[in-house]
Design a protein that fits this description.
By secondary structure, the protein is mainly alpha-helical. Helices cover 61% and strands 8% of the residues. It has a two-stranded antiparallel ribbon. Helix 3 packs antiparallel against helix 6 and helix 3 runs antiparallel to helix 7. The radius of gyration is 17 Å and the shape is globular. The relative contact order is 0.22. The C terminus is likely disordered.
Length: 191
């Protein structure tokens, strides 16, 4: 599995333009997002097989990653990207906090894998930009506190299966045929 991730990352890096990543080739192959969805499901299933996972003494703050399709469609690709970056930053932070609290081998291993996957997405999406200037983590997505480790994996799967899949689909519509497009800025609170 690590070899597959390395090959996908290598493929991504080979398709980068100078300065910014070119998401066109990355999103035009639907197999990539399907692979990430499958990996998210596998991780969720894997943590479910761990025995006696502890309840966290310090709750994790997880993003609420639900999608309202009508509101989602009205957002520009840059706004969608920034929203997903906020969700991923919160998820990566929650995973890191859970890692500090979980000592059980199976749970710690699954959390480490989740951290690597979510952080990789965070780093990759930071390279996609339609606006000048770097992304800065100054956002505050809607969130909820959780004490069960399995909720981190559920949130990650929902994020990949929902917002990320829709984002890749929207990028593919714009980039795989005729070039970049844009949309209107959204209203706040699209959860």
């Amino acid at each position: 599995m690590e070899l597959n991730r390395l090959l996908l990352l290598t493929s991504f890096l080979l398709h980068m333009e100078e300065g910014h990543a070119s998401p066109a080739r990355l999103v035009c192959d639907n197999r990539l997002i399907q692979k990430y969805i499958g990996e998210a499901k596998d991780m969720e299933k894997g943590v479910g097989q761990c025995q006696e996972l502890p309840t966290l003494s310090c709750p994790m703050v997880l993003p609420m990653v639900g999608v309202n399709l009508q509101q989602w469609k009205s957002k520009s690709n840059e706004t969608k990207r920034r929203e997903i970056l906020c969700d991923l930053a919160l998820l990566v932070g929650a995973t890191a906090e859970a890692q500090r609290q979980v000592t059980q081998e199976c749970g710690a291993r699954q959390l480490s894998q989740l951290y690597q996957h979510a952080n990789s997405f965070l780093l990759l999406l930071q390279t996609f930009s339609w606006e000048a200037g770097p992304w800065e983590p100054g956002c505050s997505p809607c969130s909820v506190e959780q004490t069960h480790i399995t909720n981190i994996f559920l949130t990650y799967r929902q994020l990949v299966q929902g917002k990320l899949r829709f984002f890749f689909h929207d990028l593919a519509k714009d980039l795989c045929k005729q070039g970049q497009g844009g949309g209107r800025e959204p209203q706040c609170g699209a959860q």
